[in-house]
């Protein structure tokens, strides 16, 4: 017999497919606001599905050689046209390749990007670089920044909110930790620097 959790997961997957159809119709009509809203909801459902898999111990990881610059370029092209804010990527110091699960990392960065868009005043900047031998993906905005209470504590300790921000951070921490090498695990940093800065750190 199928349990409620699995039924919910199947239902979420079906809803995501229906949202994709709605987004396509809205895009054809030039309704940018609706496209943005629908894709953000779809991203939230993706996080819920990933969280469910993580809780059941089924969140697998497929690490392979990837190109960070290509990933950020794709996210910029996907999200940028959906809103009036400026979304850009700094790729000057991005490494040519790195080893990570692109699907999971993409989900984490997309969540951080949507969160930044909710709080930014004019712009959001993504970047990839190598810091102290680790790959750093960052998403920063020019908004009010993270509340002081969210800084200086592990992501796993962040409170869950009705908006799903906490869920996204918890999942980001899970995804980061799945990336490990020589006993070191990836992690997430939150900071403020003329706005909020989200950093996903992945080991070499």
TrEMBL record:
Catalytic activity: ATP + protein L-histidine = ADP + protein N-phospho-L-histidine
Keyword Acetylation: no
Organism: Candidatus Accumulibacter aalborgensis
Domain of life of the native organism: Bacteria
Protein name: histidine kinase
Pfam families named among the record's database cross-references: HATPase_c
InterPro entries assigned to the protein according to its UniProt record, in alphabetical order: BphY/WalK/GraS-like (IPR050351), HATPase_C_sf (IPR036890), HATPase_dom (IPR003594), His_kinase_dom (IPR005467), Sig_transdc_His_kin-like_C (IPR004358)
Domain Histidine kinase stretches: 10-204
GO BP: any one term: osmosensory signaling via phosphorelay pathway
UniProt keyword terms in alphabetical order: Kinase, Transferase
Gene Ontology terms for molecular function: phosphorelay response regulator activity; protein histidine kinase activity; protein kinase activator activity
